[in-house]
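ok here's 3-oxo-tetronate 4-phosphate decarboxylase:
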Amino acid sequence: MSEAQARELICEMGRSMFERRLTFGSSGNISLRTDDGWLMTPTGSSLGRLDPARLSKLDDTGRLVSGDAPTKESFLHLAMYRERAKAGAVVHLHSTHSVAVSCLDGIDHEDVLPPITAYYVMRVGKLPLIPYYAPGDKALGEAVGRAAARHNAMLLANHGPVVAGTSLSAAVDAIEELEETARLYLLLHGRPTRYLTPEQVEDLKRRFPPQ
Ligand SMILES: O=C(CO)COP(=O)(O)O
Ligand SMILES: [Zn+2]
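and the structure:
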């Protein structure tokens, strides 16, 4: 994919997620690995109105080389790439149901959501909760980096999800699956529910090895 195509893709995916109310205001950010570094959404930008020409271009050391100043969570994205050699894109949203789950008391910090459906297991798998830090806090990047070695998706407490994928469409697929599963989890609250069994989860991991 050329850099021009990558720029268009980020704007198209951002607009699609924004229009489907998967993030709001100027929340959320997207990054994509290129041949010589990364493209990232600028800080303070709405994912619904991104301009391909103003995306932040970072070199392979993470230094801004052109465009507007990058997301204040660029270090968090870079921590994901550092730990995940195959990651081609990272998406962070403030998607409502995932945020709601990230605020629940008493959830399992090692794995926030149960295996409700096969697609959730295939796209997300285990979902750790990262303790709360203010947006842009460098300690958030360190905490994300520690979890990223073992997980392609994580939930920031009282904040929202962060997901890496081999491509931007893979990362978007996974974060959408996470959001819908959070919604199902809340919908099912209080009802006797049959989750997938550990055997069914293991079978899915064999058939569809995690990235
Ligand atoms: O979601 C966000 C912070 O958590 C958005 O921040 P940026 O506008 O700096 O990307
Ligand atoms: Zn955020």
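+1. The domain at 3-207 is CATH 3.40.225.10 (L-fuculose-1-phosphate Aldolase).
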